[in-house]
Amino acid sequence: MKATVLIALFAAVVAAAPQPPVINYCGGKTGLKCPANKLCVGEAETQGEKGVCISLPAHTCGDMMGTRCAVKSDYCYTDPRIHCPPGVMDCGGGVCVPLILGNSIMRLN
After folding, report:
1. What range does the record give for the signal peptide (predicted)?
2. Least enclosed by CB within 10 Å: which of 34, 39, 73, 93?
3. Is the peptide bond before 57 cis (omega within 30 degrees of 0)?
4. pLDDT tens digits, one per residue of 78-95
């Protein structure tokens, strides 16, 4: 009887434990696309290798006002939707990438 209760309790705790996010890689030489409502970021930082998919709407950062990510552990990566005119080095604008996804981009470098 006690063993059954312990097993049921253990199963409930394991089921309630937070699951790590699934990392979807995209772009670069892989040609992989993100699912709908997601954005592929990190390709610019990995020099055309692969990036990761983040959920939209993404929080913005790195604009002319120096906006930072709301979550201090997030990374600010170039927003691939912003295209600078020829001769302009930095149009500003990035998107906040959660720590675990940012770390997976960093490992690609």
Report:
1. 1-16
2. 73
3. yes
4. 888 888 787 776 677 889
Query: What's the pLDDT at 108?
Result: 52
The tens digit of pLDDT for each residue in 9-67 reads: 555 555 555 666 678 888 888 789 999 999 999 887 777 778 889 988 888 898 878 88
| Phi/psi at 61 (5° precision) | -160, 175
Q: Which SS3 state, helix, strand or coil, does residue 15 take?
A: helix
Single pTM value for the model: 0.68
CA nearest to 60, candidates 85, 97, 32, 34: 97
Strands across the sheet containing 94-97: 60-61, 94-97, 75-78
